[in-house]
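Thread: quick sanity check before group meeting

JM: Hey all, I'm pulling together slides for Thursday and realized we never actually wrote out the predicted structure for the chain we discussed last week. Dropping the sequence here so it's in one place. If anyone has concerns about the input, flag it before I start.
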Amino acid sequence: MRDARPLRRGRAAKALVIGAALLTVGLAYAVLLPGGAVGADGPQSQQIEEGRRLFAVGCSSCHGLQAEGGTNGEGRVTGPSLIGVGAAAVDFQVSTGRMPAAQTGAQLPPKPPVYSEQEIAALAAYIASLAPGPAVPAEQAYDVSQATQQEIVRGGELFRTNCTACHNFSGRGGALPNGRYAPSLMGTTPRNMYQAMLTGPQQMPVFSDAVLLPEDKRAVIAYIVSLQQQHDPGGFGLGRLGPVSEGLWGWLIGIGSLVAVAVWIGAKVPRVAHKPSHTKD
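JM (edit): ok, ran it. Output follows.
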């Protein structure tokens, strides 16, 4: 009868090798697991679930139950797909009150936000979980409290090159075709400025990091913030729209005042009655 002990030892050795391999893989996964990854019951998954519930109640009627986009009974698009737009686009649209929209139109105007900051973050997390997209920027990306004069000057050059065609050289906005307009930037926060450049809301082009570097975006924001803090020491700013508003002021107020004074003077001059002359036959 053959000895079974070597066979048993061979099976035990194989089991030990397999166990050691599994233990090594498990340890490696634990060490290399990204810091942002969480379990199914972690805080991030709870935030995503909260965002999914908020989306189903307040957004799905236009954008579809799975954010795939929606249409009405006539086939007209009621809301575009949000898959891949990223958390930054959601944060911008919802925090500025543009979404949820009361009604569709050529332009969605800003208004007070409907959702709280926590709810906006949950909605952004849910949309970001559907597909990769631009993330909400970190605060240091748009913090310009310590911006230098050199950065502001460079930001002004970039703004005049890329933005003045729509937003005016003073950042006060301007009209666009088909009932659209570029909004004024005087009340826009640095965070939303960065997100607008990153995502290109509505008719605005996307200024990705390949087109406009993060430090260039920060310089543009620093310049706009300097415009927001700028005063009008000479008197009325007239919207800082340049010669158009100044010319209107000159014609309507200046020339108009002169015409009114001339009419008033003419009304005060006494009129001389002329007697008809009599001729003799």
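AS: nice. The chain has eleven helices and four strands. The radius of gyration is 33 Å.
JM: adding both to the slides.
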